Amino acid sequence: MKIVFGCDPNATDFKKHLMAYVEELGHEVADFGSDDPIYANVAFKVAEAVAAGEYDRGIVVCGTGIGVSIAANKVKGAYAACVHDVYQAQRAALSNNANIITMGSQVIGTKLAECMVKEYLSCTYDPNSRSKDKVQRIVDFENE
């Protein structure tokens, strides 16, 4: 898979660690930065690239993961889930068809982040799952 990363300046080392880990898992990675203290700008850029199909998934990091999640979700076709544990990372893909995950470099450690990223990237949304109507309603609302 092609995975694009972005972060705010405070999460640079955390992001670089995760990028190296994702490469070790065999995925292609791209880095959209960021040196921009306005984390929304990199979140928008990652979300636009994922929504356009240039990348399969995105991972965006800030201090808590909340701000970049809110920003990424403003982009049509981007579905970002802020995750804090492995189960959430799994369900982001399996139940919610999230094409982006966000996380906080100041609230989780790198080993947990590795586990979450590995689980997220190993899961694929099942369009025939019991969540299909819920996910479809989100897409329909976005397109209204």
Beta fraction:
15-25%
Q: Give the H and E element order.
A: EHEHEHEHEHH
What name does CATH use for the topology?
Answer: Ribose 5-phosphate Isomerase B, Chain: A
The profile of the biggest β sheet is:
5 strands, parallel
Number of strands: 5
- Per CATH, the architecture is 3-Layer(aba) Sandwich
The SS-based structural class is alpha/beta
Quickly name the level 1 CATH class. Alpha Beta
Overview of this structure, please?
The chain is of the alpha/beta class and 144 residues long. The protein has one domain (2-143): Ribose 5-phosphate Isomerase B, Chain: A. It is built from 6 helices and 5 strands. It has helices at 12-24, 39-51, 66-72, 86-94, 110-122, 132-143; strands at residues 2-7, 28-31, 57-62, 80-82, 100-104. The protein has a 5-stranded parallel sheet, sandwiched between helices. Strand 1 (2-7), helix 1 (12-24) and strand 2 (28-31) form a beta-alpha-beta unit. Helix 1 crosses helix 5, helix 2 crosses helix 3 (66-72) and helix 4 (86-94) runs parallel beside helix 5. The longest helix has 13 residues, at 12-24. It is globular and about 40 Å long. The N and C termini lie far apart (31 Å).
